[in-house]
User: Fold these one by one.
Assistant:
Number 1:
Amino acid sequence: MTSDAPAVATIVVIFAIIDERLQVLLVHRDADPDAGSWALPGGVWDGSRSLDDAAAAKLVEETGASDVYLEQLFTQSGLDHTQPSVAIAYFALVDASAVRLRAEPGDAWRPAWLPVGELPRLAFANNLVIEQAVERVRAKLDYTNIAYGLLPERFTLRELQSTYEAILGGESLDRRNFRKRMLGNAVIEPTDEVRREGAHRPARLYRFTTREPVFL
Amino acid sequence: MTSDAPAVATIVVIFAIIDERLQVLLVHRDADPDAGSWALPGGVWDGSRSLDDAAAAKLVEETGASDVYLEQLFTQSGLDHTQPSVAIAYFALVDASAVRLRAEPGDAWRPAWLPVGELPRLAFANNLVIEQAVERVRAKLDYTNIAYGLLPERFTLRELQSTYEAILGGESLDRRNFRKRMLGNAVIEPTDEVRREGAHRPARLYRFTTREPVFL
């Protein structure tokens, strides 16, 4: 290789539903350019392992989550204005209740979840990367079981609908149509369990018929 | 950058329908490793333009075609066993009748179309890249107008169906259902023109309602 080979990085858009909103995990950059500003987790790819493995390792490092939905999004040039570079972006859907964020010395440097609709200007045009990831997830909601990544293994229909609504940016879905569609697609199935919450009628728990990606 | 930065290349899977079969454009590699064997067109990316522009330029260089469907497929590491590298793969759908293949000195080095079902072992695990491109195109047939890239502006319903069948690997589609679906989706519309071929009844010419990618 010549010394002017482009820089290669992997970055990961990590989504979770927190407070009924779609949120993305961001870290503070610890080096220039844009030291101190928020950015997607990622790092230089050195070729010692596959791109998929590098993205999965970054995900585990940040969240502790390994059994999650991880997909390559796209590769973009020109995100870093200081040098020729390509960034291979992935996105992941994680169940927030299973996440343990990586600790950092000093509160100011801790990773944090931010709602996708309320992001500041991020380093490296990362806002654009997140927008494209959101678009991909929304598109896939319609024809795959992709939402399984955001939920625990067992969940109520209300939690499932709330997850869909969060991904769609707060849009309200008709309860009856939603349930009919999800059950009709054989995407989910009832379990024997129910959950009791306060004085409400116990809610049936459901699970995805498969946690492998399937087309509907 | 350090001198051990990975190599970055763009490669393009260029599809056309020729002799009613889905074929892919291949070139002979002119350098080691695997000099002389068939490979996808591509080249080192030097950072002087965007990845999209580099892929489009390669497509024009090989086929002369510019107004075509071009989409990023995925990025893969490890295709080249001689050094750490990433290859950003694109795929393109071109109308074979509009293509003028790049000329090379000596017949043995001319680019050529090969049917996707009958490929030899290609350099750099390119067979795998082509398989994934075929899979993407087939999946998109169902919910986009992606086939517009493979056809001239005006075409008969028979040509359209034949194009779909070629992409699906020779599967026969029911003529009546196919027409009903294409017209029902508002993907195509009739024009005022007909085409006369031999003693047959003149065939109506159709066009895509849009040649921009749309979801059905």
Number 2:
Amino acid sequence: MKDCCTLAVDAMGGDAGVGVTVPGARMALERHPDLRVLLYGDSATLKPLLAEFPRALRQRVEVRHADVAIRMDEKPSQALRKGRRVSSMWLAIEAVREGEAQAAVSAGNTGALMAMSLFVLKPMTGIKRPAIAGLWPTMRGQSIVLDLGATIGADAEQLVDYAIMGEAMARSLLHVEQPSVGLLNVGVEEIKGVEEVRRAGRILREAALPIHYHGFVEGDDIAKGTVDVFVTEGFTGNIALKTAEGTARQVADFLRRELTASWWTKLGALLARGALRNLKKKLDPRESNGGIFLGLNGIVVKSHGGTDALGFANALTHAREVALYDLVENIARDLSAKKMMADFLDTRQENGAQQAAPARNAG
Amino acid sequence: MKDCCTLAVDAMGGDAGVGVTVPGARMALERHPDLRVLLYGDSATLKPLLAEFPRALRQRVEVRHADVAIRMDEKPSQALRKGRRVSSMWLAIEAVREGEAQAAVSAGNTGALMAMSLFVLKPMTGIKRPAIAGLWPTMRGQSIVLDLGATIGADAEQLVDYAIMGEAMARSLLHVEQPSVGLLNVGVEEIKGVEEVRRAGRILREAALPIHYHGFVEGDDIAKGTVDVFVTEGFTGNIALKTAEGTARQVADFLRRELTASWWTKLGALLARGALRNLKKKLDPRESNGGIFLGLNGIVVKSHGGTDALGFANALTHAREVALYDLVENIARDLSAKKMMADFLDTRQENGAQQAAPARNAG
């Protein structure tokens, strides 16, 4: 049980626990014949559920018992105290560190999952804080947005790290060879954004990193899919994500109310039901389920806590794709290129400053 | 030409200039028989356009010549140099300071308009930086969101000021007696948001201001209309606004594409056209056009630069409503109540600290 792809699944996480994670894992196994799953949780609960799987699928699952399940409302500190080395969440992450699995997937509580991931996997060299990256449906297809709320108040260097990590993820998940990267900013003339965002823009423009940097983008560019990767700080990213989800639901709700208002509109909706079904599928948050923790020495995917089996299976599919691509190794290589470039630029800047000094005196 | 309501209109602002502002002003005059308009701009251009108005409307308009029009792409500093005392934008704002008009309306560039408004009207006592507040369509009706991008990086005291100003605006524009106020925050457990947002929450909870403070809200609460007033810092507010606008357009675009995919869906769309028309109206950004500058000694309303006559007329309607309500006086009263309360709390805290000291030693 090595090679690609073995996923370590926290079977006890999420609002519905095994009721969603087990059928979700089954769907993913059916989809991907190369997939193996380590299922962490209460074995007395899991074994009977697994017995219902067809034999061919069952052979690709291994149940690993965990005494403790982390609750959805537990604080990260509580979760760490109670769940260290014994919870399904911890053990699934540990399987990634030990090389037994290429990624861990959990629908458990985000705070606990991030705390344990940091504790077990540790941040990559040169990364201060991790980010959560998500797929975002756009008019052009899909884009990646990060950080969706792992870290609050990123400085310019962190934003550049997010750009590097998001770009690598876009290559793996969106299959774009040279993904474009934009920095979220505000368009109002007199302010032109936060100092750190402007500084990050300068670094991305001047550092000659192997990244296709597009420039600043605004909130409405996300829906347009103007770039493949949208980079922003976690507070703004989290609020933008939830605002968009809310707006999509709001428009769908308006539409439903209007279409059931009269017999004519109901008949119209009946005739156009294929179109409405397609629209629903396009807006389905389950399609893009699975926030990916970037910046750790290993991949952890956070599924939405309230998703169903299909949504959870999609999180496993996304985990498999980033695992296939060796995302962590790719990011590490890009980060060391950045480091070299930054050192080079620092040197050049110092020389430049020395040369500039006499000129200023002369002026 | 005193009393309510006289609006000073920058006729030269916006992408289409007089082609939108003049018919927009006309629509507003038709709507509101109590409305008078001071029309600032090139009188040689404006007078012939005005000659086409019915006489009864024409009597409620006064053209005031301005030599200079501020361009949409001018920087605030350029605009100030070139437009001070002579531009239509400047003169419209000045009419508010002089008490000739109760509010100024411009579709001109936001940066220049904010710079001139600050220069001419000055911030209210106790207000560090102004905010831009906007109406936002929700599932429950309408809410107010601020700051939409006037100021970047508000501290706790500024967020509390926004809460006070937004609450007064909700009373005037939404006609809610006791509007509820929420602070935008992220829901992720381990971070619980920016320190300044948490501090603002503490002040709003403990200061016993005459405000119905609901607590923290998240991005998806905006579409739900969970509270009447959403308070956030300008960078996040601007990105949330544009993300929502983009998402609404995206969903409408998906719907349009799907409904034109086959003859069946086209027929369905034809039968349901009343419903689709209503949906379009509900999502129409012209309905909520007009960002209101709050925190200045006078009201300035920023219309979207690319709107049409209907959108511009709506901005005038919103300006009239806040003028009718004496928004500035109401905000000033609330701010001084806050000041008193804050002083009282400061004193109490100091006393409390002294009393607590021996207890701590004893413990």
Number 3:
Amino acid sequence: MKHVLCGKCVKCGKEYAAVPDLTNCECGGILEITYDYTYIKTQLTKEKLAARTERTMWRYRELLPVEETTEPTPLRVGWSPLYEEPRLAKELGLKKLWVKDDGLNPTASLKDRASAMAVAKAREAGAKVIACSSTGNAASSLAGNAAAAGLKTYIFVPSRAPKGKVAQLMTFGANVISVQGSYEETFELSKAAIDKWGWYNRNAAINPYLSEGKKTVSLEIMEQLNWEVPDYIAISVGDGCTIAGLWKGLKDLYAIGFIDKLPRLISAQAEGCCPLNRAIESGEDWYPMEENTLADSIAVGVPRNADKALMAIRESDGLVVNVSDAEIMAAQKLLGKMCGVFGEPAGVTGTAGVKKLCEQGIIGRNDTVVSVVTGNGLKDVANAIAACGEPISIPNDMELLLRAFAEKGIVVE
Amino acid sequence: MKHVLCGKCVKCGKEYAAVPDLTNCECGGILEITYDYTYIKTQLTKEKLAARTERTMWRYRELLPVEETTEPTPLRVGWSPLYEEPRLAKELGLKKLWVKDDGLNPTASLKDRASAMAVAKAREAGAKVIACSSTGNAASSLAGNAAAAGLKTYIFVPSRAPKGKVAQLMTFGANVISVQGSYEETFELSKAAIDKWGWYNRNAAINPYLSEGKKTVSLEIMEQLNWEVPDYIAISVGDGCTIAGLWKGLKDLYAIGFIDKLPRLISAQAEGCCPLNRAIESGEDWYPMEENTLADSIAVGVPRNADKALMAIRESDGLVVNVSDAEIMAAQKLLGKMCGVFGEPAGVTGTAGVKKLCEQGIIGRNDTVVSVVTGNGLKDVANAIAACGEPISIPNDMELLLRAFAEKGIVVE
């Protein structure tokens, strides 16, 4: 990989050769993949990119840590739509708002970007088996992307993972271990098994390539905005890997001169589980929290990528915002009703944060915002029905229909 | 619309001006939109198409029945991936096999194509409200596409519609009426309400524009195959509208000279509800059947678009195949495990049909086949779990993990 320099520890600065099965630094710190931007600038221009027909994350190959000979992974990951939402912008009181619907990835979440990268690197490493622990989406995305590539998977999920995600795993033929306990315990059992059997490791805070997959979401956002930088990009935060990846993509684009400034990040967490935002607010170290939220994908009491996430929020002069489960459910309804976008609870938490910051007057009519929806609402149907209620239920009878409309206060136009 | 001639009854041949709120012929027959292909040939070439950056169904505008001034609808409908599947082709004994994953549309089914068209035509008609009855997917796609466009919806679903689809409807803010009865009764109540209130009608066998949206699936397949025509295209069949639309797209491409022959269709229905295939097999008229299948989207005992569907299958010299629920579930697992594609039961029925025809030796090693997956498995999680089983469930304990692997016969690599 001519364009990749090394994996560098974010804690102690130690550098490692960028081999495919790179894990953490010996000091325990997480590695960051560093690039030769001078070389990349000679290889990639905006014009060259614009001429490409490939509409997947692999269109950004010069910025991705893979060998030139590594094939794109089989599923169509990335190039999710970025919708401009003038009606919702008006409702919230923003100058401009875009929604990036990453729930339209093949297994219905942003995590497909990291899993596709894991599959590409596992192939480079000659591995036949990949494993991970996950609150659900990393798991289902790994299972799907690996299945399409003909690789086996062992996947550890906490027992609270919603049925939709478990159904995906089973359908994709993964070996699934549902761990009766927290995400932390799930992570520990997966680590023990990976150590024991030497599987290729897709745990996001261990494998430094995964953020490099995730960063393609910001590469796309910027290209879709024709390189005009918004004031803010909002995203939900759990483990910390996704916001770190998002930031990495932006910094890469800045380093190669594709954008001339950096947006501020908005880190949205659930009130019931916000260890990273609490650390930013207090200016102190993070410490563990309970996992009290219905937004299962970001219910991470012990974030595994705290260092990179906190660095990203601070470097960007970012905002943090914590939202209640009720605010998350309201955001889910709002996105559905006004945008036709159906996000899972964790997926819409970024939008819930944007709404709250607008209501608090912290952002407003002069601001342009991109809100990333990280996962599809179909993964967690029970919570959607709880948020939005049940339909009218009647036999085939016009009289009963009229009565039901009257009872519900529906005035027919 | 310079390129549209009229709506022509498939039964009596009567022609109607192509106004936006066109419905059935006065004889009860269904209309087909007819085009001025000579004019279209002067407007659209393969080269012109290849140069387009728009990756939605609206890239085929010259072949769609909308005004030049009609804007594309907001959600990103169409241009779903067409995956070549050499491993599955080998497993089934086919020369080549492609899977078109239409479950990656914005509301997760092929029906988004028809609903986006309905929204475009409703806007042309100046309507503010759209209504339909549906087994589920037409409903959720209409709700989503209409919400994004700022239109209101009234939607009638049979009470058996899976929770995933109902959750989508409620999230998209539709007025939902769950009818305690069959699809037939659901259709009747919707018709009565539409007649009463004059809503824009998105019922697929009434509104002739909807097949024109659906046909974009075959326009895409052919462009994605670089205009090389496969021997067969397989799809699941319920109401009949989808296979009719698929066929219309192929005929359009043939008429303007983009393809030099036509593929044969494979019409796959559920054994427990196959009135159209039965009519083909017997050579007689179709007559109603019970709706006995878990593939809810194609459980249509009284198909509303029988005429067009039967015509399509016959014109294409098509094959018909009926599959059991067990075969549908097996196809769901097979697509998941080998392709990383998660289809809903009705969505994978086409693939189940292909598998069965291979096993029967009716198609085989000399044949190239495209199988369309029409909807996402996340819409019906309960059936997926029934098909694929439950995961291993243990606490964080390596000993228990080893024991569980041994019990399940999992040999770790």
Number 4:
Amino acid sequence: MPIAATRFRFAVTLILPLAALLTPFEVRGDEGLWPLNQPPTEIFRDKYQFTPGEAWYQKVQRSCVRLGRGGSASLVSRNGLVLTNHHVVSDQLRKLSTPERDLLTDGFLAADPSQELRCQDLDAYVLLGIRDVTAEVNASVTADLTPAAANEARRKKIAELEAQRPDDSSIHSNVVTLYRGAAYHLYRYRRYTDVRLVWAPELRAASFGGDVDNFEYPRYALDAALLRLYDENGAPLHTRDFFQLNLEGVGENEFVMVLGNPSRTQRGLTVDHLRFLRDVEYPAVLGSLWRREVQLRTICERGPEQERLFRSELLGVQNSRKAVSGYLATLQDPRIIASKVEDEAKLRQGVAGNPQWQAQWGDAWDRLTNALAAYRGFFARQNLLNGRGAALDSRLFRIARHLVRYAAEREKPDAERLEEYREAELEPLKLRLFSPAPIEDDVEIEDLASGMALLIERLGGDDPLVVQVLDGRPPRERAAELVRGCGLKDVETRKRLFDGGAAAVAASQDPMIRLATLVDPEARKFRKRYEDEFESVERDAYAQIAAAQFAVFGRQRPPDASGSLRLSFGTVCGVTEGGRTVPAFTQIGGLFERSAQFGGTPPFDLAPSWQRAQSALDRTVPFDFVLTAEAIGGNSGSPVINRAGELVGLVFDINVPALGWNVVYTDQVARSVALDVRALHAALTHVYHADALVAELTRELPE
Amino acid sequence: MPIAATRFRFAVTLILPLAALLTPFEVRGDEGLWPLNQPPTEIFRDKYQFTPGEAWYQKVQRSCVRLGRGGSASLVSRNGLVLTNHHVVSDQLRKLSTPERDLLTDGFLAADPSQELRCQDLDAYVLLGIRDVTAEVNASVTADLTPAAANEARRKKIAELEAQRPDDSSIHSNVVTLYRGAAYHLYRYRRYTDVRLVWAPELRAASFGGDVDNFEYPRYALDAALLRLYDENGAPLHTRDFFQLNLEGVGENEFVMVLGNPSRTQRGLTVDHLRFLRDVEYPAVLGSLWRREVQLRTICERGPEQERLFRSELLGVQNSRKAVSGYLATLQDPRIIASKVEDEAKLRQGVAGNPQWQAQWGDAWDRLTNALAAYRGFFARQNLLNGRGAALDSRLFRIARHLVRYAAEREKPDAERLEEYREAELEPLKLRLFSPAPIEDDVEIEDLASGMALLIERLGGDDPLVVQVLDGRPPRERAAELVRGCGLKDVETRKRLFDGGAAAVAASQDPMIRLATLVDPEARKFRKRYEDEFESVERDAYAQIAAAQFAVFGRQRPPDASGSLRLSFGTVCGVTEGGRTVPAFTQIGGLFERSAQFGGTPPFDLAPSWQRAQSALDRTVPFDFVLTAEAIGGNSGSPVINRAGELVGLVFDINVPALGWNVVYTDQVARSVALDVRALHAALTHVYHADALVAELTRELPE
């Protein structure tokens, strides 16, 4: 999914009293998504009297799991059990479903390990180590290079670094860019490709309250699922590193930490960059999301089979829409922008006060502003062809494009390829490309027809590319013809074309291969423009701004999130807003009350299993809770742990004010939302009768 | 509502096999929305052996009713009973509802005339006569005038013509533009301001199947309501002109006619004008509709009170979204455009073949193309400030803007005013402006906040107008401040400002008056640009193209719809598509079957009254039916009559292929959808027990 990492969730109301709190370039309260090799040691020590050693960090790091390209998760048993959010694996649940067995609606519990269902295209990553490679990356850049050439040199060096690995195909390396270009760190992971579904509740239990309660608190959602990692021999992974559940849970005001893979924050952006998001990028992204939400909702309403096929896509779109609405609303507050203007002015004054600094870094802001102005000119086309809003985005089209592109890229030296086709990336790519997950014609036709119509809407019906794509037919008719005639639904055909290279692809008469071949030159052209005209300047300018910040203020913020493992921290803490106090914890009894309030109608309907279990459940058991530790899209599935490294909760959301964290941290009313381990335990015991799992999760095991 | 006339209703699938049928400038099959002074006499005679006399047309014309600014309806009893669609009056039902009495959910039946509820701001119009004033309008234009000046001269002349009326305040005159400028006809109406609600079914009965079944067939919707016109003495209107119900109904293949006020079709547009709709106008309109639909839907889901407040706005938005989606899908078919290109080339060749024609009309197409190119440059801003997509569109803002504008316009001679403030328009304006319908703060804040956010999204947060509108606050906070501080919720305050004129408005500290004053100069500037740079050329060019068409082909199409009374005709006729035959009629039994198919869940839930009546109803009674007679937005509520001028049905929808009628007529699969009078009769009798109404509707009365 183009926006898969944006998993958090809306805002009818978003009045953020943030502006008053802003002071430039200081870490505020419990701010920060910290890399594990750059932990907030002083804050831990001074504010929380917490001084974990190297071993503590090692164990925590190796207990964390990244799922696929974006989800967070953690190991929770010595037998490879992995805890994450239901919504992180909902797409896998859809792929494992059939018209007869709808895992989203009915949930799933493996009676024993032999019944666990292997996910068709999900891999899992455990971080082994981090190495700072900034100097190596920057050594490849000489002073005489243009920004585009410098960017190219950096990319090549990064490809080289990622390709250096022991002869172990399960090791995966990735260079993480920090501060948008000031630092480069090499992350080395162990990758697991045999990931099986162990337990998932019913969708209505996992996302109780649906879109209405999404990004809200109080909440009563059991947004959890259990997977298991298997080793290369097909045996459950044995590990010493995992988070033991602490069934005492956590108390109000207690210190906790959150670990996960937040995808992207925008806190360090220049004012003009924020304006670009406000006026160009977010409106374009939201426009596509609103459009798609309406289309998908009207399809889902047509009947249960349509709902089964399209619901998962709809849930993803709704979630992204709520998140981006919140990000945009924050930037639409003139006071937020005003405070950023003030911060930036202070920094630039500081730089201007020192002639050497001014000479070194003084033009970084203007260079970025100019690059943004250039990018505005081709953003729409770039976004439609390559970006988050890519128009042609059906599963078959993506497969065809990978085959077409890989056939061209494999001819090049590794370091010169598009990054997703480098040797280091091929195994993850093949997992997705050769996924046996069923491809439904109806879904493909709908996705492709919608995308083609979007191309007409945004580029105009007489645009040469649009005319070629449609080939004289209206979008739906053209899409039907492409999908019905496409042989890529067969995995063996994909493998043949993948292995056959450029000659096989050029000879293929598959209509989807032909379409991808048709579109590719223009898509590549705009990707190149983006990299040369914008990204290269961006990296360079932000590296300078980060240096300036350190020079002027003597310290740096923690880096913006960029998809790698981060630690955040804070306390469990309720919210008082407008005289109304919302306590930190909800209780299981509240679920039944809220459902009754709405007469049990969707999205407030109870799953039958919960109706049956009602009398067996202790209504006072804590259900969900809120905390001040930061989270953002990609943090879904993050474990909440205590000082002892024990699991006390599972982050699955943030509240509406916390969407403002994208650009500025505050702990006044912004909160992350987590599931309490005590509710998970009660549900597994009394609702799902998963006795073996409960035993596995709660056994105190000798090291 | 900015799009109120677009009342028809979507298309997941829209493959129109139209292109094959096109031949240039001939009326095809049962094509045409004919003005009553230009009926299709030859077709009636030759194809249907139907030769109605002047008296027949007179009676039909005086039995038709226009509701407010856009809805269709008809008189159906000698005591002023008026039949229309439920969805045409749903906004009135909302205004008459309270938290305790929800007329949309529960429906309404007046036990006797004394219980009928006066609509708060609805007027009704009966057409008395039509006069061709083309020569008079064009006489005001001399050859030396620029297009803008010519347009101005025409507008002044039109204002003069509309102001000429007997000393009878119930007479309302309106000059209708035909062929977008080739002809001007003066329509004279009697206007009724005391319109009362007599009966309305429950929303779930009226729009059974909701958005899913909207624009689909087969259907089972009782989309009807009854009103009554009262005279100036508060007595029910006595009239000899009305449509008598024929309870024999109509048979398959029978000839029928439809009368109503279709708002706008685009069949006569040049190819470049259609491209403008496809690439600029429709995508912009749809973008706003998708956005608003998602926003309103998420609000409605928050609880029953929110649903009561916002449901009616949501239904309107969904309906427009489905309609515009269909219009756009038609234009996104390259074959439709290709056929239009061919038609246009033939006409232009014909013109080019005659040097005099070429000199007179040859440059009309290019002039229009140039005007469209200019309009593209300011469409976004014009549309946001004045158009269908107007951003600031809350009820209080509209009131404030009327007060601000009227204060300025009243100072000018009548013929120089903005047309909605001419003397002839003041009474209808005052009806709406001084409506006592409650104004809810929550709705106002939501509408205004959404509109302000839209301004930022489309114009950017640093646009000077946007900065002034927000005044330093985020949209929702600013909207709350404006609405809470606004005194215009009080009708007397509005009257004071209306009567007080420019001085009173200038002195007012009401925040909404100040906002409207702030925005008005820019809004007027763009309206003027639109009129001078586009509309003036448009009128002139289409007048020339119409003349060329007549010269080259010897005949004209019927004029595109433009909001005035039109007659269309055709036969009752099922559809065969892709081997599947859908019969012309559904039956009452089908309603219960379709509801059961969906387990009775919304929007397929039955109203309690229908559940109770199930056994009393004859399941074989025809429910809805389809016909080949044209209809389009604005036709909702149109009577379907037979040769004898008897009522046999009530148009409430068209099917998806018929949305293509906007640009080209076909009767292959495109159909209008109507309620059968026999279902109306059965429902009033057995479901609503409205015995007095049934008697009134079915009594054979002496002339």
